[in-house]
Design brief:
The complex is a heterotrimer of chains A (310), B (268) and C (296). Chain A has 310 residues and is mainly α. Chain A has one domain: MetI-like (MetI-like fold, Orthogonal Bundle), CATH 1.10.3720.10. Helix content of chain A is 75%, strand content 3%. Chain A contains 13 helices and two strands, in the order αααββαααααααααα. The longest helix of chain A has 40 residues. In chain A, 47% of the residues are buried. The mean pLDDT of chain A is 89. Chain B is of the alpha/beta class and 268 residues long. Chain B has a domain of 180 residues: Rossmann fold (3-Layer(aba) Sandwich), CATH 3.40.50. Chain B is built from ten helices and twelve strands. A seven-stranded mixed β-sheet of chain B has the order 1-12-11-5-10-9-8, sandwiched between helices. In chain B, strands 2, 3, 4, 6 and 7 form a five-stranded antiparallel β-sheet that branches. The N and C termini of chain B lie close together (10 Å). Chain C has a single domain, classed as MetI-like (MetI-like fold), CATH 1.10.3720. Chain C contains eleven helices and no strands. In chain C, helix 10 packs antiparallel against helix 11. Chain C is globular and about 65 Å long. Chain C starts with a helix and ends with a helix. Classes of the chains: A mainly alpha (310), B alpha/beta (268), C mainly alpha (296). At the A-C interface, helix 2, helix 4, helix 5, helix 6 and helix 7 of A face helix 1, helix 3, helix 4, helix 5 and helix 6 of C. Chain C: This is Phosphate transport system permease protein PstA. Chain C: InterPro entries: MetI-like, MetI-like_sf, Phosphate_PstA. Chain C: It is a multi-pass membrane protein.
C-alpha cells in the first residue's frame, strides 16, 4: 500500500512536460489571436476613418455615392461638397466586370484544353507558365500596360490611350492566370468516372466536356471567376498606371477615368490627416474593404451551395 | 443471435491478487466517441511479465481498449471507469498523463520512425527529458537496439536516417525507441500487420525475450500469432470483452460459443 | 461523320485555338519582359544608385531595400505564421471559434494589398510615428504575408502522417514537443517551399509599400553597418523605396530620359527573381526531403 502511495505521488506530480504543453498551447494560440486582432484592427480602423466623412464632416450618403464631381474640399456648382465617388465606383466596377467577361471564356477554354484535351502538354508547358504568371508583380503588368497596351489603344482608337479599355486589357491578362489555375483545379476535381460514364453512353468528347465536366465543375469555376474579380477590383498600381487618373464619369472606354484604388494611391500622399480631403479618401478605402468582404461572402455562398459531394 | 449483454455469455478469468502480481487492471471501463458508447464490460487484469493478446474482429473495441490503457484516447474519446497501474488509478485528471505514457509505452501498427537518424530516434525522448550525457545515451542506444534485436543490422549506420530502414527494421527501432524511456508495460497495436512473414517471426521472438522484463499487451488480428505468442488472450466482440483466459484454453476449450466460432474461423 | 461528331470536332478545334491564343499572350508577356529588359541589366545597373534627372541610373539601393525588407518581413511573420498554423492544424477543434478565425484569415488574404498598405500607413507610420521607414514597411508586409504563409505551413503540417504524432505522444512527450521536434521537421520540405513561394509574392509587392516604406531611396553608406545610424543600410528608420515601388514611381512621375530602359531592366530583374523563387521552391523542398530520407 505504501508503495502505491509513493507511485501515486510520482504520477500526480505535474511534470516538466505538462508545463511545456501548456506553454506551447498558449504560444500558438496567441499567434492566432494576433492575426485575429490584426483583421479586426484593419476593419475597425478603416471603418472609423471611412465613416468620419459622413459623421464628422456630415457628407450625405447621397452626395458621396450619387455625386459625380470629385474634388473634396471644394463645392460643386450647385453648392454641395464635391465628394461624388460615383465616377470611381463606376470605373472600378467597369474594369472589373469587363476584365472578368473577357477573361472567363479564355480561362475556361485554356483550362479545358489543359485538363481534357491535352493534359500532357498542359502539365508540361501551360501549368508552369500560369504558375509563374500568377506570381508576376502587378507593377510589371502595369509597366507592360503602359509601354504596350496604352500606345496600342492610342493608335487603334485614338485619344490618349489611357482609360477603361487599357485598364481592362491589363486586368484581363493579370487575372487570366488566376482564373485558369483555379478552374484547372476544379476540373481536376471532377471524378474520372463521370467522363467515362458519359463517353460510354455514346456522348462525344465535346458533349462530355460541355454537359458533364463543365456542369459538374460550375461552382468551382464560379469561385475562380469571383476570385479573379476580387483581384481585379482590389488591384491598385497596375490599373493606376494605365487608366489616366481623371476622376470623371467615363463616357467612353478610351477616355481617361479612374478607379477607387487609383484615386487612393494617387491621393493619399497629398492630403492632410483629418481633413475632409483625407477622410473622403478613407471612405473610398472603406468601399474597397466592404467590396472585398462581399466577394468573400460570395465565395462562401457558392462554396456552400456547390460543394462536391463525394 | 448475439446476446453478449447477458453476463452468462461472458467468461473473464480473475487472478487471486494475493498470489499474482497484477501490473494493470481495468474496472468498469467505458469508452465513448462523442455520445456513442464504443467499448464497455472489460474488467481485465494483466499479469506481470506475461504477454496478453487482444483478439477480435475489426471494430470489436480491442484497439480502443488498448489505447485507453496509456490514455492515448484522451483527445479522441471520453474514457470512464478505472485503469489501475500497480494499484494506482491513472484515469483521473490529477494524473500526469506524460509520466503515465512513459511508464506504459506504445508501439504502433505502421512503423513510424521520426525524420531523424536511428540514434536520434532512440535518444530523442531522453534528450527532451534533459539527459544529454553522451555516454549514457550511447549506452541506452546499444542496450535498447540489442533488446529489440536489431543492433547487429544497424550498429554501423546509427547516424543514417531512420526513414531509410525497411519495415521490419523500422518497427524494431520503434520498439527500441519505446524501451529507451524505461517503461514497464509495453502496448503493441498490431505491430506486425505491415511486416513480411520473416520479420514477423523475428518480432515475435523479440517479444518473447522482452517478456522477462516487461508486461506486454498486444492487439493482433492474426489468431495464429496470438496462439503462438501469448500467455493470456482476451477475445473482444462488439465493444465488449467476451472471454479472457489462458491462451491455450481460449483456443482449445473456449467457454463461450462466440469465442469458439471466432477462433475456429466460423465467425459471422 | 454525323452532326454531333462534327460539332464536337469544331468545338475542340476552337478550344485549341483559345488555348493557343492564351499561350501566345503569355509567351509574348514573358518574352517582352526579358527581351526588352535583360539587355539593360548589367552588374553596374544592379549595383549603382538611381538617378533622378539624368540617364545611367541603376537600381542598387532599391534592390538592396527589397531584399532587406523581404528578410525582415519573413523574420517577423514566420514565427507568427508557424504558431498560428500549429494551432489551426494541431490544436483547433471543429467549432465556431475555429471557423471564425479561419474566416478572418481568409478575409485578410483577400484584402486588396492597397488596403493593407493604408492600414499600415495609419497604424505604423502615423499612430506609432515610425514614419515612412523600413520598419513600417516590414510590419505592413508581415500583415500582407501572414495569411498565405499560415495557409502554406498549415498545408505542410497537414501532410505529415498522424503516425508521427502518435509516436511522439506514445513516448510520453507533450503534444507541443511532438509538434516542434517531430511534426515540424517532418514537414520541413513543404514549409520551405511555402516560405520561398511567399517570398516571391512579398518581393514583388508594391501597393502595400508606397505609403509605408515610402517612395524615396536616400543614399546609403555601405561602409556603415551600424543599424542605429540613419544612413546605414541596416537602419530600420530610414525610408526605403523597393524595386517594385521604383518601377511604379518612375513610370508615374519619373523624368529621367532613360526611364523606359530603367523600368524594363528593373521589371526583368523582378520577374527573374520571381522565376528563381518559383523554381527553387520546388528544388529546395525536394532536396531537403531527399536529405532527410537519405543514407547520410
Amino acid at each position: 500500500m505504501q508503495q502505491n502511495q509513493k507511485l501515486a505521488k510520482q504520477l500526480m506530480k505535474k511534470s516538466k512536460t505538462a508545463r511545456y504543453e501548456r506553454f506551447g498551447h498558449l504560444l500558438s494560440l496567441s499567434a492566432l489571436l494576433l492575426i485575429m486582432a490584426i483583421v479586426l484592427g484593419i476593419i475597425i480602423f478603416i471603418a472609423t476613418k471611412g465613416l468620419s466623412t459622413f459623421f464628422k464632416d456630415h457628407i450625405s450618403l447621397k452626395d458621396f455615392f450619387g455625386g459625380v464631381i470629385w474634388n473634396p474640399g471644394t463645392q460643386t456648382p450647385s453648392g454641395q461638397q464635391a465628394v461624388g465617388a460615383l465616377p470611381m465606383i463606376v470605373g472600378s466596377f467597369l474594369v472589373t466586370i469587363l476584365a472578368a467577361v473577357v477573361s472567363t471564356p479564355f480561362a475556361i477554354g485554356t483550362a479545358v484544353y489543359m485538363t481534357e484535351i491535352s493534359p500532357k502538354r498542359g502539365a508540361k508547358i501551360l501549368q508552369p507558365v500560369t504558375e509563374l504568371l500568377v506570381g508576376i508583380p502587378s507593377v510589371v503588368y502595369g509597366f507592360i500596360g503602359l509601354s504596350v497596351v496604352v500606345p496600342f489603344v492610342r493608335h487603334t482608337f485614338g485619344g490618349s490611350g489611357f482609360g477603361i479599355l487599357s485598364g481592362t486589357f491589363v486586368l484581363f491578362v493579370m487575372i487570366l492566370p488566376t482564373i485558369v489555375s483555379m478552374t484547372v483545379d476544379s476540373l481536376k476535381a471532377v471524378p474520372k468516372y463521370y467522363r467515362q460514364a458519359s463517353l460510354a453512353l455514346g456522348a462525344t468528347k465535346w458533349q462530355t466536356i460541355w454537359k458533364v465536366v463543365l456542369r459538374a465543375a460550375t461552382p468551382g469555376i464560379l469561385t475562380a471567376i469571383v476570385f479573379g474579380m476580387a483581384r481585379a477590383f482590389g488591384e491598385a498600381l497596375a490599373v493606376q498606371m494605365v487608366i489616366g487618373n481623371a476622376a470623371l464619369m467615363p463616357h467612353n472606354l478610351v477616355s481617361p477615368a479612374s478607379t477607387l484604388t487609383s484615386v487612393l494611391t494617387a491621393g493619399m500622399g497629398n492630403t492632410v490627416m483629418g481633413s475632409l480631403q483625407n477622410d473622403a479618401l478613407w471612405s473610398l478605402a472603406l468601399v474597397l474593404l466592404v467590396m472585398s468582404l462581399f466577394f468573400n461572402l460570395l465565395v462562401h455562398f457558392i462554396g456552400r451551395k456547390g460543394a462536391f459531394k463525394k | 443471435m448475439l446476446n453478449s449483454n447477458n453476463p452468462t455469455d461472458r467468461f473473464i478469468y480473475h487472478f487471486n491478487p494475493e498470489e499474482t502480481t497484477i501490473t494493470m487492471q481495468t474496472k468498469n471501463l467505458e469508452v465513448y466517441y462523442g455520445k456513442t458508447l464504443a467499448m464497455q464490460h472489460a474488467d481485465i487484469q494483466f499479469k506481470q511479465n506475461t504477454i496478453t493478446a487482444l483478439i477480435g474482429p475489426s471494430g470489436s473495441g480491442k484497439s480502443t481498449f488498448l489505447r485507453s490503457l496509456n490514455r492515448m484516447n484522451d483527445d479522441v474519446a471520453t474514457v470512464k471507469g478505472q485503469i489501475l497501474y500497480q494499484g494506482v488509478d491513472i484515469n483521473q485528471p490529477k494524473i500526469d498523463v506524460y509520466e503515465v505514457r512513459r511508464r506504459i509505452g506504445m508501439v504502433f501498427q505502421r512503423p513510424n520512425p521520426f525524420a531523424k537518424s536511428i540514434y536520434g530516434n532512440i535518444t530523442f525522448a531522453l534528450e527532451r527529458r534533459g539527459i544529454h550525457d553522451k555516454r549514457v545515451l550511447d549506452e541506452v542506444v546499444e542496450k535498447t537496439l540489442k533488446q529489440a534485436a536489431v543492433w547487429d543490422q544497424v550498429k554501423d549506420n546509427l547516424h543514417k536516417s531512420a526513414l531509410s530502414l525497411s519495415g521490419g527494421q523500422a518497427q524494431r527501432v520503434c520498439i527500441a525507441r519505446a524501451l529507451a524511456v524505461q517503461p514497464d508495460v509495453l502496448l503493441l497495436d498490431e505491430p506486425a500487420s505491415a511486416l513480411d512473414p520473416v520479420s514477423t517471426q523475428q518480432l515475435e521472438q523479440t517479444l518473447r525475450e522482452l517478456k522477462q522484463d516487461y508486461t506486454i499487451i498486444i492487439v493482433t488480428h492474426n489468431m495464429q500469432q496470438a496462439a503462438r505468442l501469448s500467455d493470456y488472450t482476451v477475445f473482444f466482440n462488439l465493444g465488449e470483452a467476451i472471454e479472457y483466459n489462458k491462451t491455450r484454453k481460449v483456443f482449445t476449450r473456449p467457454k463461450i460459443e462466440l469465442t469458439d466460432d471466432y477462433v475456429s474461423g466460423n465467425f459471422g | 461523320m454525323n452532326r454531333t461528331q462534327k460539332q464536337s470536332r469544331t468545338a475542340i478545334l476552337i478550344l485549341r485555338l483559345i488555348a493557343g491564343l492564351v499561350v501566345l499572350i503569355l509567351a509574348f508577356l514573358i518574352g517582352y519582359i526579358f527581351i526588352t529588359g535583360l539587355p539593360n541589366v548589367s552588374w553596374r545597373f544592379l549595383t549603382s544608385p538611381a538617378k533622378a534627372f539624368t540617364a545611367g541610373g541603376g537600381i542598387g539601393i532599391q534592390l538592396f531595400n527589397s531584399i532587406y525588407l523581404l528578410i525582415l518581413a519573413m523574420l517577423i511573420s514566420l514565427p507568427i505564421a508557424l504558431g498560428a498554423s500549429i494551432y489551426l492544424n494541431e490544436y483547433a477543434k471543429d467549432n465556431w471559434f475555429t471557423s471564425t478565425i479561419r474566416t478572418a484569415i481568409e478575409i485578410l488574404s483577400s484584402l486588396p494589398s492597397v488596403v493593407v498598405g493604408l492600414f499600415g500607413f495609419l497604424l505604423f507610420v502615423i499612430q506609432f510615428n515610425y514614419g515612412f521607414s523600413i520598419i513600417s514597411g516590414a510590419l505592413t508586409l508581415t500583415i500582407f504575408n501572414l495569411p498565405l504563409l499560415t495557409r502554406n505551413i498549415e498545408e505542410a503540417l497537414a501532410g505529415v502522417s498522424d503516425d508521427q504524432r502518435q509516436g511522439g505522444l506514445g513516448l510520453g512527450l507533450s503534444k507541443y514537443e511532438t509538434i516542434i521536434h517531430i511534426v515540424v521537421p517532418a514537414a520541413l520540405p513543404g514549409i520551405i517551399s511555402g516560405i520561398i513561394l511567399c517570398s516571391g509574392r512579398v518581393f514583388g509587392e508594391a501597393a502595400a509599400l508606397i505609403y509605408t516604406a515610402g517612395q524615396s531611396a536616400p543614399a546609403l553608406n555601405f561602409g556603415d553597418w551600424n543599424p542605429f545610424n540613419i544612413d546605414s543600410p541596416l537602419s530600420p528608420l530610414r525610408p526605403a523605396e523597393t524595386l517594385a515601388v521604383h518601377i511604379w514611381k518612375i513610370n508615374s512621375e519619373g523624368i529621367m530620359p532613360d526611364l523606359t530602359k530603367v523600368s524594363s531592366g528593373a521589371a526583368a530583374v523582378l520577374v527573374l527573381a520571381i522565376l528563381i523563387f518559383n523554381l527553387s521552391a520546388r528544388y529546395i523542398g525536394r532536396k531537403v526531403f531527399e536529405k532527410m530520407t537519405s543514407v547520410n
